[in-house]
Amino acid sequence: MHAIVLRAPGQLAPDDIARPAPRAGDVLVRITHSGLCGTDWKIFNGAIPVQYPLVMGHELAGEVVASEASGLARGDRVIIDPVLYCGQCFHCRKGQTNLCPHGKLIGRDCDGGFAEYAAVPATQAFRLPDSIPNRIAPLLQVATTCLHAQRLTPVFAGESVAVIGLGVSGQLHVQLAKARGASVVIGISRSRFKNEMARALGADITIEAGAGAVSQVLAATGGRGADVVIESTGVLPCVAESIRMARFGGQLLLFGIMSAREAALPFYDLYFKELTLRNARAAKPEDFADIIRLMERGSVQLEPLVTHRMPLDRLEQALTLVDDGAERRLKIILDHS
Ligand SMILES: [Zn+2]
Ligand SMILES: [Zn+2]
Question: What DSSP character marks residue 259?
């Protein structure tokens, strides 16, 4: 089958490789569309070490072409949950499959879906309803990670939520916070385009990131600060800012992945404001079923988040776009047809 293979950092090339053979319990999925994200960029440039050769790709939608499992049949359209787990260990038995120490991410720890086909356990594939087309379905995977994070972060109707960083995840956090009944959702970005998008998707207020952002959040929340701040950039100064814009007794959801192992932060403020800090990693199977339901209810829109569509064979060019910091870029979807 046709695949785009990473042979070493920065060395990506189309190739003809063996089509994966589904084992008992697996489905073979013809991938129709895939999404690109920062993780793919980091794998491509070597920042995330992997075993080569590797087929990347973990945001995958397609159609079942062969099934060795009950529950899914040939012709079913599916979204793939790329987080593999063992099902036997302490964490899996506690329902924390996303933290399984034997877990793997499809497209990082084993071959993924920048290819014609992928074989995955049927338990990792979720049938798409007619209302969700494949061309936007890869975004469901991203949305599950936001849903998982918000599940861990209580929000009560009427509370205020500030979202720092309005990339794809930030836009999804805005929508989920609104769907949960937050009365004031504040989006914060440097990009005018992303601020406008957030308002179109439900943000009540948007603020241009920068020196005045904290005081504007205070002004928008009766001088108190936001009940919940969702940090969605992974950039350290934004974490410090999120501490400053949270109210006393508020919560911080650190969603952006921070690669710094240690850093200076306003720790005294964390203590003095008695803030609750939450982290969230990946998602669980339940999040797929629930995000599909939220989409069907119209609570979450994915289509506006797709700003670029390219054929699979232009993967390398698409990867360089992921890191270009463009003001008007959100999701890049690859078309495999
Ligand atoms: Zn991703
Ligand atoms: Zn496990």
Answer: -
